[in-house]
Amino acid sequence: MEGLVLAGMILFLIVLIMGKEYINSKSFHKHNLQRIYASYGMACEREYKAGEMEHIKKYYLRHPRRNQIDDITWDDLNLDSIYQQINVSCSAAGDEYLYYKLRTPVDGQEELEKWEAKTNFFMEHEEERHRIQSLFYQLGRMGRYSLHEYIENLDILGERKNGKYVLYNLLFFLCIGSMFAAPPFGIVALLVVVCHNLIGYFREYKQIEPYITSFRYIKRMLDAAEQMGQITVESISEEQERLRGCHRKMKGFIRNSYLLVYVEKGNGDPFSLILDYVRMVFYLDLIQFNNALNAVRGHLDEIDEMMTLLGQIESAVVIGSYRKSLPAYCVPMIRFEEGADRHMVIEQLYHPLLSDPVKNSIDTDRGVLLTGSNASGKSTFLRAVALSAVLAQTIHTCPADHYEAPAFRIFSSMSLKDDLIGGQSYYMVEIRAIKRILDQVKQAEEEHGCVLCFVDEVLRGTNTVERIAASTQIMKMLSAGHVICFAATHDVELTKLLEKEYDNYHFEERIEEDDVFFPYTLMSGPATTRNAIALLKMLGYDEKIIADAEAMAKHFMTEGSWA
To answer: In the predicted model, what is the mean pLDDT of residues 155-171?
Structure first.
């Protein structure tokens, strides 16, 4: 009787502990979901671990398309930071697809309209948005690596068969049977088999454990696909139907992966502890893994399609949140027809990474040459225009009051560095970067497309005479009828040499009481002021250096030669 009471008390404590853990878990997840709902339309506060962006870009690397934003342009525009500002995804599918989308301009008006319909729906329908966000919260992330990194390495596992595991299990039961005929021998034999199985299990499980993580994520995607089909949202009906198709095709994977994906090792509760030892002794994990592996290898297309579709749906939610977080934005007007004129209009443009930006407007149908003093705003303006074009053609959202332009192929050469490892000087890196733009200009002409390019301080890596001569000819090549080139330069000579091909604009500074102020306002015409020598004076350089430098500069500007 006392034994029954003790057993009952132990059982009661176990149930109590498990119930408390369940309630705490539910409360934790509910709190997180409320935080996610409340953060819609707010700036993203997520912190990224070192190397995390390299894993997020794996989906993009596996899905190349024409006219994607190349690495030089991506780095020039600091688009990693833009991505991190935008990304409020809850899942790995959302993380990776959003990155892909920011690097992949849409192909046509129909694709843009579909994205606009999805984005607007989730912006306007809070209840459906919350249900979608809840599904993606449950889907979650995988940890450090991308699902595509695991899929790419499935071949490393080779062919895996279950025959030896079945044999080891038979030996276990034979030992159990022998204990009735010869107990001492049976016990020793059983201990030997158990030790053999445990050692073998840990050795093999270590090899497959990373892949089990990916299989669990695939199962969560299947769950999300199934639940997504139960939500009535007209704007994603096509995606829902395709997700249901993926789920139907992968029922074999679900059957063959129950222990792998539903019951995780080391949960701490008594039932899981007992189950852990059963799984290890009888190789249940390994047997199910091999069956699931064959199912995954046979459905790689469906897995990729689920990743794509789920990523598209969550990205639409994220884009809506980004729009609401901006102080101002517009839905761009993009001309996709072949041979569209290159006229570009942007009103009240600003850079979204700046906390207190000065807005500027530009209306042009040919190249723009920017001059102005150091730190006056030339490079920031170039990046703002380039970024507006990228965001307009990818997420259909522009940080401006109005944006209208043709569909461009977008390239830049702005924040280059010399390649010490590759042994290339800054000049070599620079001319290679500009050559790739010239090649794209030629290709676009053959295909009746438009190019939008940005060059900051063209050929700064060489001497003045050759820089001006070569820059003039390069800039003329970038003034073709299907190209708009925005370029910044300190070489005022270019404003005269290129005045037939480019519109001149400038930024200027104001020096008052030994201090310098920058209004950051775009102004017509070439720059007429300089501040390099004035800045030396403000920082306390020797007066003789200042006086002699000013005299030399004045002589050159009036006589055209150095004294």
So the answer is: 81
Task: Tell me if 529 sits within 8 A of 374, measured CB to CB.
Answer: no
Using left for φ > 0, alpha for ψ between -120 and 50, and beta otherwise, residue 371 falls in: beta
Pairing of strands 483-488, 515-517: unpaired
Which residues in 482-524 belong to E strands, given as ranges? 483-488, 502-507, 510-512, 515-517, 523-524
Most confident of 215-229, 267-281, 458-472, 520-534: 215-229
| Residue type at 493 in one-letter notation | E
- Please tell me the distance from the alpha carbon of residue 295 to that of residue 469, in angstroms, as a whole number: 63
Backbone angles phi, psi at 552, to 5 degrees: -65, -45
pTM: 0.86
Tens of pLDDT, residues 370-383 = 998 878 889 999 99
83 SS3 class: helix
Question: What number of other Cβ atoms are within 10 A of residue 147's Cβ?
Answer: 25
**SS3 per residue for 283-326:** CHHHHHHHHHHHHHHCCHHHHHHHHHHHHHHHHHHHHHHHHHHC
What's the half-sphere exposure (Cβ side, CA atoms, 13 Å) at 488? 23
Total residues belonging to the chain: 563
Given the structure tokens 């595509």, which residue do they identify? 148
φ, ψ of residue 42 in degrees (nearest 5): -115, 160
Other beta carbons within 10 Å of 237: 11
Distance of alpha carbon 342 from alpha carbon 367, whole angstroms: 10
Q: What are the structure tokens assigned to 51, written together?
A: 């190397």
Alpha helices in 163-182, H assignment, sequence order: 163-181
What does the alpha-carbon distance between residue 549 and residue 44 come to, in Å, rounded to a whole number?
A: 48
- CA angle at residue 228 from 225 to 233, to 5 degrees? 140
